[in-house]
Design goal:
8-stranded mixed β-sheet; 9 helices; elongated; alpha/beta; homodimer; 255 residues
């Protein structure tokens, strides 16, 4: 039985709690939060504490808090030499106070308030200062997921930027698609099968090979037509920018 | 029984043929192509012709050819006043020669050579010059798909630009994600669950509400860190451009 304490109860913290509750191999001793929280029914026996001094003795302390308070909260922990990890993709491990043994437990996924994630398919990126602690984190992660990777802080920083491109920026492209359709009174639903297929395609075909479209074909007639069809200056500019990048990338490879 | 003839046997033409072969309500009389093609085993009884003069009498002629030859081929058809449609998202209906009754049969999806698409979930966008022909196209489309929409040429032009954003451009963002991970010797597979979730999320949440990340939060510390982590100038520029667009969009809505 692995005894853990969760510090912070936002999106990640609450989904982690729900996932751990389903396992008999993990015991969540306490949940710490700065402001009042209500735990789900299945967690009614778990004490919520609002004072770091009230923290119990656990195997792993998991900080799921904003990046900018990881340092402060870890520094204020009323003990030393225990295993303390954060769950952030953007923060390095050494943001955590040195007074405890440090690690990272980063589930690589986008979490929504109202959607229960399937942790089995979520990659968990682990980092620890020493091999014994890494094994402890691995034991905990393997309860949730089948995909566990050793990722150091500099690799995790790269993953986090990459995630912004494929998640945040992609979602913004979806938003543009929706705007364009709504301008012509067409339901955005019409694009959903294409969006889904675009995401699924790269599970079997690398993006480089999956690339299609007027930019890849260097079809100047269609590109011109598209630029004329776009009404907003910002859409035109983004269309031209990405088209040029695709053209450069694929022409370069043809030389 | 609807009698059709396919003209052109590229990606769209071949997938259409395979889909029609599965139905008892459609008979594919001939396949026309300019260069030699080999039909699948199930289509061995269908004659392939290489001369427009050899075309039979059909209810609907479907041109799945490059946009730039739609006009020419339709003009060279050796008959008049029959129903002739193209399958292009980018071309207007009036690109087709006036000598026949014109229409469009546009399946809104990205097709890959080696992956059989599930037409049931593919929206088919229809246009015709008169209501009777529209009904004919609708009867044909309903054999393949549950999602049929009446879309005129100006709407289809918008859809086609939108498809470039959510398909071609999104795929390019995936490509950047892959490059970034490979720079740090991390497998691109790690991002696949995030990519899939990003695409699925907007089936229940509009992109506007699904937007997350440092740009949306206006988290300048993380944005700065990301820009420093990016090595290629083109990635930096694109990161800055889309970040600014997201910031503008979401700040505007807060005012």
């Amino acid at each position: 039985m692995i005894k853990i304490i969760l510090l912070g109860y936002g999106n990640v913290g609450s989904h982690l709690l729900n996932a751990f509750l389903k396992s008999d191999s993990v015991q969540v001793l306490q949940v710490y939060n700065r402001s009042a929280v209500e735990l789900p029914r299945a967690a009614q026996n778990i004490p919520v504490i609002y004072n770091l001094e009230a923290l119990d003795d656990a195997d792993i302390y998991i900080l799921s808090v904003s990046d900018d308070v990881i340092g402060e909260i870890s520094e204020n922990l009323p003990f030393t030499n225990r295993l303390v990890v954060h769950t952030s993709g953007a923060a390095a491990m050494d943001v955590l106070s040195k007074k405890n043994r440090r690690g990272v437990f980063y589930p690589l996924q986008t979490f929504s308030k109202n959607k229960t994630p399937d942790f089995k398919t979520i990659p968990i990126c682990l980092e620890a200062e020493n091999p014994e602690d890494y094994k402890r984190l691995e034991a905990l992660a393997s309860i949730l997921s089948k995909q566990i990777s050793a990722i150091d802080s500099s690799q995790r920083a790269k993953i986090h930027v990459a995630a912004v491109f494929v998640n945040n920026f992609t979602n913004y492209l979806y938003q543009i698609g929706q705007n364009l359709l709504e301008e012509s009174n067409i339901s955005f639903d019409l694009l959903l099968p294409l969006i889904r297929e675009t995401a699924e395609k790269i599970e079997t075909l690398p993006p480089e090979q999956a690339q299609t479209g007027p930019a890849k074909r260097n079809d100047r007639g269609t590109i011109e037509k598209h630029l004329n069809a776009l009404q907003r200056e910002s859409d035109k500019k983004l269309y031209a920018t990405i088209t040029e990048l695709i053209q450069k990338h694929h022409n370069k490879n043809e030389l």
